[in-house]
Design brief:
mainly alpha
Length: about 500
């Protein structure tokens, strides 16, 4: 007989679960007297050993939980249950909402940065235009002063040149007279010297004919090269002078043309600006129409996809329910057949046992010497029959509990599948809402950025002051650009030194 263990706490949930799994009732674990078994000691010992075995099985099964023993369960300390599908779905929805909020915040920050970049870039371009215009005005003033100064210098130089020309003409006349007189004297002297030189040269010429011919060829070649070099230098200087004169003339013509063009092209510039604004408005309207068209196409596509998913889900759910009904019906029919078969087998066993007991009782009356052994064997068989019947009842209860557990498991799986499908549908719907809200917000922000891009400096500053948040660094840069353009700074963003 196994050792006796204390009866576990029947109020503990783990012990109750172990009792249901094994098909045991609380009365099966309670200690019984010999009188409960009609005073038969052998039957009492057999059932007592079975009770101790059941107590040990219940105790071991109850101790296999995550707590490790039944003592904490008896004190009411149980682990926290895991979160259910609804809680997980709620957490998932909260995560989706949080991500949507973060995405919208990121879009708002990006739009604000784009607006600041557009404003700063536009102001920088306006500042460059302002500086260029200022430089043009300064250049025009300098050119006017330079022309005036050049005209004054030219007039003074002309007066001085006229005076010098008169003096030069007188000096030239006197010098020419002296030169003519001196030339006449030199002509006579040279004529006499020429006669002497002609005789000397003729003599030298005759003596050095051969050498003179050779040297003359070399000298002629050298003189030709020298003449060519000097002519090339002269032509290069003439070309340089012509290029400088032509460049100066072209520059003067260009300056005159630009001065006339600035005065005559105001109407053309205004017309170009109007046409540019009209083209920009047409482009914006066309872009808006194309965006709305794409948006409604996407909405129709999503609606068709939703209808297709719902139809597919309904067909799958219908097929799943029909399959479950069929499986449940087959299972119930098999279970009923097994139960009826077990009952028939038990009835046959009881009838055969009763017949054998009657036959053995009749044979025992015929053999008096074997009566004691037969009575003991009969008593043992009856005890085992009672024990087997008890075991069958307990196994039947355990089997019924197992079947109920499987059915509950199937139902819980069905519920989980339904919750997952609902969560998936809700997630898809929420995702589409997030995409729609994000697209709408992105469109609004893009429209706001385009408004800033198309606006002029004055309108842009009014839009900034009307409620657009600006970062301190960007506000500082904008105020610097406005100060350089001689414009008042933004309200509420002026620098400390300006304040």
């Amino acid at each position: 007989m196994p050792p006796e263990l204390p009866v576990p706490n029947l109020g503990s949930p783990r012990v109750k679960a172990a009792l249901r799994v094994l098909g045991i009732t609380g009365a099966d674990l309670q200690k019984q007297d010999i009188d409960d078994h009609d005073g038969i000691q052998s039957r009492f010992n057999l059932f007592e050993g079975k009770r101790r075995t059941l107590v040990a099985q219940v105790t071991n099964l109850a101790q296999k939980g995550p707590a490790g023993s039944t003592s904490t369960a008896a004190q009411g300390e149980y682990p926290e249950p895991p979160p259910g599908p609804e809680e997980r779905n709620a957490a998932f929805m909260e995560e989706v909402i949080r991500k949507e909020k973060e995405g919208l915040e990121v879009l708002a920050k990006m739009a604000k940065k784009d607006i600041q970049k557009v404003v700063i870039k536009e102001l920088e371009s306006k500042l460059d235009q302002f500086k260029g215009k200022k430089r043009q005005e300064e250049n025009a003033v300098r050119v006017k002063e330079l022309k005036k100064e050049q005209a004054e210098k030219l007039a003074a130089a002309q007066k001085e040149a006229a005076k010098k020309k008169e003096k030069t003409d007188e000096v030239r006349r006197r010098a020419e007279m002296k030169h003519q007189e001196h030339a006449e004297e030199l002509r006579q002297t040279l004529q006499k010297a020429d006669e002497r030189v002609a005789k000397t040269l003729q003599k030298i010429k005759d003596d050095h004919t051969a050498s003179i011919e050779t040297n003359s060829v070399k000298m002629v070649e050298a003189s030709e090269r020298q003449a060519k070099f000097e002519q090339s230098q002269v032509r290069r200087r003439e070309n340089m002078h012509d290029d400088i004169e032509e460049k100066h003339a072209n520059k003067q013509e260009l300056l005159q043309h630009l001065a006339g063009q600035r005065q005559s092209n105001k109407e053309a510039i205004l017309e170009k600006n109007m046409k540019c604004k009209q083209r920009v408005a047409e482009h914006i309207s066309a872009t808006q129409a194309e965006t709305e068209k794409k948006y409604w196409q996407i909405v129709d596509k999503n609606n068709h996809a939703t209808e297709f998913r719902e139809a597919k889900l309904a067909a799958e759910l219908k097929e799943f329910k029909a399959r479950n009904v069929k499986v449940r019906r087959d299972f119930e029919s098999r279970y009923e057949r097994v139960i009826s078969k077990q009952e028939r087998d038990a009835e046959k066993l009881r009838e055969s046992w009763n017949e054998r007991s009657l036959a053995r009782s009749a044979s025992a009356t015929l053999r008096p010497r074997e009566r004691a052994e037969l009575l003991a064997a009969r008593e043992q068989n009856e005890n085992h029959v009672a024990l087997v019947a008890n075991n069958r009842m307990r196994i039947g209860r355990a089997h019924q509990h197992s079947v109920e557990q499987q059915i509950d498991k199937l139902l819980s799986m069905r519920e989980r599948v339904q919750v997952m499908q609902d969560a998936r549908a809700e997630a898809d719907r929420r995702r589409m809402m997030v995409l729609r809200n994000t697209a709408i917000e992105k469109h609004h922000l893009q429209e706001k950025v385009d408004r800033f891009k198309d606006a002029g400096p004055d309108k842009m500053l009014k839009l900034l002051e009307s409620g657009t948040e600006i970062e301190p660094e960007a506000a500082k840069r904008i105020n610097e650009l406005l100060v350089e353009m001689n414009l008042p700074p933004l309200g509420g963003y002026a620098q400390e030194e300006d304040k």
